[in-house]
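User: tokens in, sequence out, please.
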């Protein structure tokens, strides 16, 4: 009986499933009953890496490090509360898979989960690309991407967060308002005003708010400001995002909250 490389993806999948079980205490099982399942997504990501290998000088094999997952509107709305946590688990499992194959990537493995208009429930689309920190080289996903993927279609405008805005009495926190001065202040006193819409924090060229901190991923976290509240979402960063000392996946910020990314601390301020 040989234990060839074909068994390695199974072990990654098994570990991924195990981590999913403990992630939200069975919530995933309910969320994904009858709709797309995360293991199917990870399988597709592994196939994408396999399909788009490139041989570099010295014989190393380069594979995509950035994966955008489009879910149907229905699946995306059900998944929204868990999207950041799932993206982080998918990124970790894909990094393990790539490591086991002894393949090479540029920088961090990045996974983004987006709303794919026109996809039927249970359908999803994976777009893989090699992201070098500057220009991107998009790679279409045969078999999933029928009709092309609109680059730049992500990170435009804040996504829906059903966990925050469906009933439940979650309104704009005190001190928030459309006419207020919402900003982040760093430990050394630098101020970063927040605009309406999405702001990506990271050290890469595609981040809107760039921070020169080696502990911060190229696309580390995203702030979504709708004029009433600001939601901070970790984008599957390597070292995680902390708010007031607690690691977070997605959280609505309150004035005075301390955000830590790498060795950088930012204080969330609301004036007016």
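Assistant: Sequence out:
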């Amino acid at each position: 009986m040989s234990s060839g490389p074909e068994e390695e993806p199974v072990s990654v999948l098994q570990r991924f499933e195990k981590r999913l079980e403990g992630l939200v205490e069975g919530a995933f099982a309910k969320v994904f009953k009858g709709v797309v399942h995360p293991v199917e997504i990870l399988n597709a990501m592994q196939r994408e890496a396999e399909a788009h290998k490139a041989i570099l000088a010295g014989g190393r094999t380069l594979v995509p490090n950035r994966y955008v997952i489009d879910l149907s509107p229905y699946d995306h709305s059900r998944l929204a509360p868990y999207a950041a946590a799932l993206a982080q688990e998918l990124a970790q499992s894909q990094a393990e898979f790539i490591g086991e194959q002894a393949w090479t990537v540029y920088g961090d493995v990045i996974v983004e989960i987006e709303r794919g208009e026109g996809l039927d429930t249970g359908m999803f689309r994976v777009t893989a690309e090699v992201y070098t920190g500057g220009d991107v080289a998009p790679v279409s996903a045969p078999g999933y991407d029928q009709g092309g993927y609109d680059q730049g279609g992500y990170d435009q405008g804040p996504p829906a967060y059903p966990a925050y805005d469906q009933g439940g009495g979650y309104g704009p926190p005190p001190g928030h308002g459309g006419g207020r001065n919402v900003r982040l202040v760093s430990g050394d006193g630098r101020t970063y005003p927040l605009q309406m819409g999405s702001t990506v924090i990271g050290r890469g060229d595609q981040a809107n708010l760039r921070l020169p901190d080696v502990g911060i991923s190229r696309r580390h976290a995203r702030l979504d400001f709708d004029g009433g509240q600001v939601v901070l979402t970790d984008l599957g960063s390597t070292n995680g995002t902390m708010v007031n000392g607690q690691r977070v996946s997605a959280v609505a910020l309150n004035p005075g909250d301390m955000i830590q990314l790498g060795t950088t601390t930012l204080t969330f301020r609301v004036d007016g």
